[in-house]
Each structure stands twice: as C-alpha cells, then as structure tokens.
Amino acid sequence: MDVSSEQLFRATDNEHLYWEVISFNGVIASDNGRLELEAGETKNLVLTQLLSLPQNEGVWLNLCIKQVEPGEWSRAGHEVARVQFELQAQAIGVWEPAAPAYIEEQPGQWRIRTADNIWIVDQHSGWLCSWVKAAWNRC
Prior knowledge:
Number of helices: 0
Low-confidence stretches: none
Structural class: mainly beta
Strand content: over 45%
Distance between the termini: 60 Å
Helix content: under 10%
CATH architecture of the largest domain: Sandwich
Order of helices and strands: EEEEEEEEEE
Shape: elongated
Number of strands: 10
CATH topology of the largest domain: Immunoglobulin-like
C-alpha cells in the first residue's frame, strides 16, 4: 500500500497508522506503527506478508491515522484521517425464480401469478392493488 504525505513543509513525525482487516465475523488481522514521512514523500508499506481471507465473505481494510502528541489545536490521539477499502466482495448467488410468472390482462388491471403469489396491478396508475399469498390450486 502506498502512503503519501500531503504536508508541504514538515515531516510526519507525530502520526501513528492503525490498520485492521475485518469481515462480518470480526477482525482478521490488525496492527499499528509510527508513520514517518518527509514532506510530500510517498512510501510503500507492507501491512502483513501473509493473510488468509475467508471464502465467500465481505472483507475490508480500515486505515486510521492519529496524532501521537498533542498539537497546537488538537489533543493527543486526535484522528487525522480514516479510510476503508473493500478487499473482497461477499459472494452473492444468482437468483433464479422457482417457477415462471404468468400475466393475464383483465379490464383495467394486470393479474400476475407465480407459484405461490398473485399480484393485481392497476393499468392506469401502475399501483399494486392486491397481493395474495396463494397456491396454484387456489387461483
């Protein structure tokens, strides 16, 4: 990961970088360390050499930079920056309908039927007028 200092006239000598890799089940890995960059400098930081990510689960990297010592206008521990990156998206299965939908046009309305639902929609307004949880044999 590349980290750049946007400071123009001073080194980042009072900042600490905190990071964590998280999933829906909690923290996978985390660490922190002093962030020392010259004005305008960019450094490549390796957060960890080997990280085992869970399969089919959302995973994010949270980064936070805080001041170590108090500044002229802030206390020690003041949060200077925070960002989150998605490392791995959650796998989402492809939805497939269990049964086909049938549409019947009736005077002033559409009747839409699936395996266990009936919707009646007004043709003029487009509003849903009725929704009945049903089985085919009751339609």
